[in-house]
Design a protein that fits this description.
This protein is mainly beta and about 240 residues long. The protein has one domain. A 6-stranded antiparallel barrel has the order 6-8-9-10-11-12. A hairpin with a 5-residue loop joins strand 8 and strand 9.
Length: about 240
């Protein structure tokens, strides 16, 4: 088996550069952070607010006519307490999202009469999209009878991605136009949709791969569509 080490070294270097910059370690949480939100309370009214979020509480400030009222009008404790002031509130937010993503596997449909393939080649990409978050704050009770608020997050986003990756170039993927095989480097791009969790996001992607070696002319998957399962980590 012939392996093109040049492409492997390039891919490892890209990942090493990102790791050395602590990209993954400093990935921002997809969680509930300070900022501007839409507040929907039990009476169904929708208000523009600014939230100052800490580990212990959420301070809510009204935002009217492009002016932030510095006088705090609501504090939501996140620790156990004897009294709670409401049953439920929902804070909504829309924002631009930037993720470091990887397609865990790609499903390549049948091509030139050959069977479909499921591949798990090394790849990495940058993603940008429009994100929608909803944070529901509900009243709960612990086994000791103490009350507290629990935050439930539901989010999703849609956008575009692009980045490098590797793929197997072999007799199978070239219809026997090559007698040996090697790992070639690709540039991938496409669209993706994510469901958001607290620290990461998961979803599905559809895209195309462009082989960088001269064998792109005989590689059966060059610029052919695929679908895959994608994971993302938010970038600050």
């Amino acid at each position: 088996m012939k392996i093109n080490y040049k492409y492997i070294i390039i891919s490892i270097s890209v990942i090493g550069l990102l790791s050395s910059c602590n990209t993954l370690e400093k990935a921002s949480s997809h969680g509930f952070n300070s900022g501007y939100y839409k507040l929907k309370s039990e009476n169904k009214n929708i208000e523009n607010v600014y939230l100052a979020v800490t580990d212990d509480q959420i301070n809510v400030y009204q935002h009217k006519k492009q002016h932030l009222d510095q006088k705090q009008f609501l504090t939501i404790p996140l620790k156990t307490t004897d009294s709670l002031i409401f049953n439920q509130m929902v804070f909504k937010k829309q924002s631009l999202d930037f993720d470091l993503t990887s397609i865990l596997f790609k499903y390549r449909p049948s091509s030139y009469g050959l069977p479909a393939q499921l591949t798990t080649d090394l790849n990495i990409a940058l993603y940008t999209g429009w994100r929608y978050d909803s944070y529901q704050i509900k009243r709960k009770k612990d086994p000791l009878g103490k009350r507290y608020y629990k935050i439930n997050n539901r989010g999703y986003d849609f956008g575009f991605f692009a980045g490098p990756g590797t793929t197997l170039v072999s007799p199978f993927t070239t219809r026997n136009n090559r007698s040996d095989e090697y790992n070639g480097m690709i540039i991938q791009g496409g669209i993706a949709g994510f469901i958001e969790l607290s620290m990461a996001s998961f979803g599905f992607a559809a895209g195309y791969d462009y082989l960088l070696s001269q064998d792109r002319k005989i590689w059966i998957y060059n610029n052919k569509p695929w679908i895959g399962f994608v994971v993302g980590i938010a970038l600050k």
